[in-house]
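tool_log.txt
---
The assistant was asked to compare two proteins side by side. It first ran the structure predictor on the initial sequence, then on the second. Raw inputs and outputs are pasted verbatim so the downstream comparison step can read them without reformatting.
(1)
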Amino acid sequence: MSRDHTKEATAAPGPAHDADAPFLELLARGAAAEAYDRPVLLARAEGADGGRIAALEHAKVLALRVRSEIEGRRRREAELSALFETAHDLAGPRDVDAVLQAIVQRARSLLGTDIAYLSLHDPARGDTYMRVTEGSVAARFQQLRLGMGEGLGGLVAQTARPYVTDDYFRDERFRHTTTIDAGVRDEGLVAILGVPLTLGPQVIGVLFAADRRARVFEREQIALLASFAALAAAAIDTANLLTETRSALAGLERANEIIQDRSAVIERASDVHDRLAELVLRGGGVHDVAAAVSEVLDGTVRFEESAPADALETSRADGHAVRHRDDWIAAVAAGGELLGALVLRGQPGLDPVDQRTLERAAMVTSLLLLARRSAAEAEQRVRGELLDDLLEARDRDPRLLRERAARLDADLDATHVVLAARLDAPAPDADQEAAARRRLWAAASHLAATRHGLAASRDGGTVLLLPLGRGDTATGLARRTALHLGTAVHEAVTVGASAPVRGLAADPDTVVAAYAEGRRCLDALRLLGRSGDGAAAEDFGFLGLLLAGERDVAGFVERTVGGVVAYDERRGTDLLRTLDAYFAAGMSPARTKDELHVHVNTVAQRLERIGRLLGEDWQSPARALEIQLALKLHRLTAAPSAVAMPVPSAPSS
């Protein structure tokens, strides 16, 4: 084309260009679709020719097409922007509920629906439930649950395909239920679009968009909602992964804490092992073990010889510590024998390693007890051998006897009492009797060791040689020994004691005689029915003269009427002769006054004084017999001048 023709085309546009102008202006200001009819209508009203009107019609069609393309692009930009924002939400550390709420809100906004909602699958119940709603006004609708194949959503979940209906209640492609239909009716929904939320081949929920009027959802809208559903599924998957990750991290933290705790416990157990080993090596005792374990277990551990029977037996049978109320009990046993228990007080919750620590301490305690028992038994045998030698007078070298006794922490030059002890209850058979005798011997040996004495098994019972403390008596020592041994063996033990003896190393025969005296006292106690008691010869009155190894006449007289003799000597009275005359007169005050040539009131006064000196029971048959014997022995041992003295005439009492 020549330059002239170009200028002409530019200066004088043709009819087609004139037809485009009004539509370009409409496109520029984004006018509504109805506004594009006005240029054609104006041209017809002005009487424009047919070519002009045809050009305008053609330009309108092109403008509307351009307008539609522009609106489509704007809509796609908005959709892409919404999808981008949703994806951005997924990339941030937002709560999954907030992300799902944003997805539902944007889907409702972009699709221009009255309501949008999302339901999720419940594996436990096998149905879906409402998770998020936007624009809903009916409470029953918000609480709906849809089973597989029930309602439009159930069909989507079952088939994993999008479904749309422009009139819910007239659509027969899915199964209606009373509950679902009631919820949809409450919400007033008519047109519903549902797309599945899928993770791989699994449907985990459904995303819905719905209107309260009839509506046809376009393919682009279905695709858009499907894109939001994919993002929702990704959000849920991300949340699940995050939850699993957090759970795994929490599990790792707990595992790390457990490892640290176990490491601390192992270190503590190692510390206990070292401390127990040190205790054993330096000769520590049972209570030292309990104290060491108390520090490690942060509680109070004690060794006790008795504990609740059920818990103790269970611990012994299982070999483990057992819980009893708020305490833990670990049996201390050797073979089938129970030696006691370690008891941890006030620790109802106990770590397994700490429990093992308590059990190990119980094992160490049993070993210590066995070692101590073995040492004690060896010492008991040595003590028994020395006492056997003294009783049989085989070793008469005083120096050797003293050396052997000194090694056992005994002093043969001190004053001692020989005690014969025996069980009184008959045993049902020979084995039980032998076991009872062993228990008695063990208890007696322990007592002898703690009292710096000796003990041996002899004549079906036990004999002890115990030192006599200052101010103590043979009777008191015998009674305490009977009580101690009876408590130890849980049976009645009768003990007969000799008179105090001295110089055992120089004259071992003294021990033989003292043991014979102790046995006579033991037999007397049993004959008198005083089983479980302890006594010496001095406790039997005139019978003691027969039981004692040496006839202590002066001692008997002193114990029986010594108070009356001393009173006469101090006051110059004649109570002793009055007492002798009273018995000679058959204990008759009237005949006594005639014998003494005094008034009967004087006799009564003297007898009252005698009763205060001898005790209220002095006229009982047994006491009266002892007093009469003592009076006779007193006369026999008195000086001849005293026997021949004239009787004073009625001195006052």
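(2)
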Amino acid sequence: MNSGQTYNLLNSINYPEDLRKLTVEQLPEVCGELRQDIIKELCCNPGHFAASLGTVELTVALHYVYNTPYDRIVWDVGHQAYGHKILTGRREAFSTNRKLGGIRPFPSPEESEYDTFTCGHASNSISAALGMAVAAARKGDTQRHVVAIIGDGSMSGGLAFEGLNNASATSNNLLIILNDNDMAIDRSVGGMKQYLFNLTTSNRYNQLRFKLSRMLFKLGILNEERRKALIRFGNSLKSIAAQQQNIFEGMNIRYFGPIDGHDVKNLARVLHDIKDLQGPKILHLHTVKGKGFAPAEKHATEWHAPGKFDPVTGERFIANTEGMPPLFQDVFGNTLVELAEANPKIVGVTPAMPSGCSMNILMEKMPKRAFDVGIAEGHAVTFSGGMAKDGLQPFCNIYSSFMQRAHDNIIHDVAIQNLPVVLCLDRAGLVGEDGPTHHGAFDMACLRPIPNLTISSPMDEHELRRLMYTAQLPDKGPFVIRYPRGRGVLVDWKCPLEEIPVGKGRKLKEGSDLAVITIGPIGNVAARAITRAEAALGLSIAHYDLRFLKPLDEELLHEAGRKFQRILTIEDGIIKGGMGSAVLEFMADNEYKPTVKRIGIPNIFVEHGAVAELYQLCGMDEEGILTKIKEFIN
């Protein structure tokens, strides 16, 4: 941490109560120092960069105006909350951010009372904050303010609209801040537009408005329906003045903005003026992702999580990957293009992660056959189902953890109709520093009970390519392919595209003392542990790559059940209900009685840290598997 850096104001701020001792005139200096602190920390301790730079002024203004942690600030996703962490007692510990045992990558109530709600998946802030606002009112806590911050990207998620709909119909005083960084900040606007904005956010205006509405209620001239109509009318007038339409004007939610989200003094004034207004409110800000660091402003996507970089020149330190195996995601992206060139029915779908899953390769080569649907995982699946129903072959790529949000859509909109949608679950298994909100732990256990699904996991890049080829062949139905974050094991990753018989595993190695059954790339780790165990213990160990969780290779499992008294299953997924559980069920159903031991992600939410560290923590690394084999034999 750069805590030794000399800052005129930031060094004296340990908590928001220290910030609130300053004058409004000092806030721009605080913002400048906070921004520099983030830059100097993240250049050597990588994390989510551009988003946090874009919310510096908003963070300072919120903690300056609101009495946190008594007042509730609910962040959406949490990529933008580093400034919030630094101002709320975690500046000295910030060097441990995203490291094993260090502070968490996203806000978490387990870490700080200033973190009001767990976030990591987008679009939940409005619903959670509305719940808090209603709880405060229910308890008679009339002094508590609740603020939800949501980005324009997160607004595409269905949950955000569900929250908005409920907020418009429920008695509450929630403030929703829409952080819109998808466009340049307008120049300071003058004339009637600025006049109307200043008028509608001033204390005098709103006091007069409240007194007038109360009087009209008493006289019987105004009722609740008429009040809502007036709010809609007022929002319409403001939309005309701003020469912009907004989706809130018909929802009985008062709308303010848009304003410059980097003018911290004006932002503090506006927040102060509207914070005690009754009813739900939207404050629309325009911000710039990466604000204050020119390379990040120009290329926000590349600077979302840029790794290490030079804080002066902006040069990113990219590791030399020459001669290394490719990322699984890049094998997916390139293979998808290869398949699409041969099969005109193939289209690609991703919910806002084109570069993260390498769908951008298809987007660049065949832009009309690739769709980024925004942060909307459920829609991505149902949209894919609709295309499949009318003859296309969608490859829908969703991170494993985010797939959980589309579970219902997979069942109702794909599996019931047996539609040929290929669900490619990137980031399956332990993902590393992003922690429990992002680990792809649950997909096998969640999807295994669903009829009509084929569920597979390739052990290496060749297997991934062949499974992708197999999945797009006729009459394969809904087909799941799960694979991890990071690199594979084959430098020479290209291979002929050949069909793999659905439901057929592989016997990788004969043995007589113990059978090891794996699924997916963790089989490579197991293979190394098996070699060491045989050398150290004089054992003969068979190794099976199950390859398909559903349908199971019953011939392979019958062989293992008949031949072995000891079976060890290994998977990079939650141990409850996953592949090991499927093997146990098969053995019981067929009255085989081997002793079965399972290795997998334990039934806990695994913390953040490097993938290798987390594998070791869960006993899933080479040493952990070797130890388990020794214990099993003894």
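---
observation on (2): The chain has three domains: 10-299, 328-482, 506-631. The chain is about 40% helix and 15% strand.
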